[in-house]
């Protein structure tokens, strides 16, 4: 058996995706990342040997371009981590059709299409190494809804449902799981009032940072007996 074949992480130019990519590279994995925007994190990952592919999943053509790039360069994969995401809210004047399309495209269509397109590569990765995983980054609000991020929450619920369907379709070779954080890390433009309100929503009242998500990814990849499941990283918010 050889070591795990390359792992794709989408949207890994910053924050959680970047932290996951660095951790997996440090553990000796070959990592492929997608990014839209040239960021310092992309340059860091290139320097660490990651294969960095620019990809915008907001259009079908953008998704298909990435599919072609992978199919032309790889014959086996050890995993796909669907991390790419935009946290958009319903704001005054926003075209709700455009908003829902954007959310569905990045959170549901892209993971759906990549999982189907890369099935043969994941199966090949499993045959040679015994490892193949898909991880969907969903969200606490996939289950509970959100009155301010309605289309976002609905699309994350769609992604959560893909976990069930693909875990059945790809068993027993490929494990398919989800990670559902509530608050992992703030954005720089979150003001103090927002931060205090967000912290008060969970029992543990903390924002753990991206390493909490890295730990969850590492657990799932090392598990031999978890599929079709979701790791909830929510500080007890479900009981608050
Ligand atoms: N941060 C948190 O507290 C929480 C996060 N999550 C989930 O965890 C995951 C990681 O969160 P976080 O690190 O904050 O994510 P970010 O908001 O930093 O988004 C990750 C990346 O997604 C990429 N992206 C966005 N839209 C597209 C698109 N249409 N096509 C391709 N790439 C795109 C962006 O790329 P680029 O920068 O290159 O443009 C961005 O860097 C996400 O799925 C998120 O929904 C869930 C709950 C809480
Ligand atoms: N793509 C993103 N999704 C989410 C983010 C984010 O920054 N990018 N942030 C959150 C919040 O932390 C929320 O969970 C708590 O206020 C949710 N999703």
TrEMBL record:
Keywords carried by this UniProt record: NADP, One-carbon metabolism, Oxidoreductase
EC number: 1.5.1.3, 1.5.1.50
SUPFAM superfamilies to which the protein is assigned, alphabetical: NAD(P)-binding Rossmann-fold domains (SSF51735)
InterPro entries recorded: NAD(P)-bd_dom_sf, Sc_DH/Rdtase_CS, SDR_fam
Entry-linked PROSITE patterns: ADH_SHORT
One Pfam family it belongs to: adh_short_C2
GO molecular function, one term: dihydrofolate reductase activity
Enzyme class: oxidoreductase
Any GO BP annotation: one-carbon metabolic process
Catalytic activity of the protein: (6S)-5,6,7,8-tetrahydrofolate + NADP(+) = 7,8-dihydrofolate + NADPH + H(+); 7,8-dihydromonapterin + NADPH + H(+) = 5,6,7,8-tetrahydromonapterin + NADP(+)
Gene3D superfamilies: NAD(P)-binding Rossmann-like Domain
Superkingdom of this protein's organism: Bacteria
Similarity remark: Belongs to the short-chain dehydrogenases/reductases (SDR) family. FolM subfamily.
PANTHER family: DIHYDROMONAPTERIN REDUCTASE (PTHR43639:SF6), OXIDOREDUCTASE, SHORT-CHAIN DEHYDROGENASE/REDUCTASE FAMILY (AFU_ORTHOLOGUE AFUA_5G02870) (PTHR43639)
Function per UniProt: Catalyzes the reduction of dihydromonapterin to tetrahydromonapterin. Also has lower activity with dihydrofolate.
Listed name of the protein: Dihydromonapterin reductase
Biological source species: Marinomonas hwangdonensis
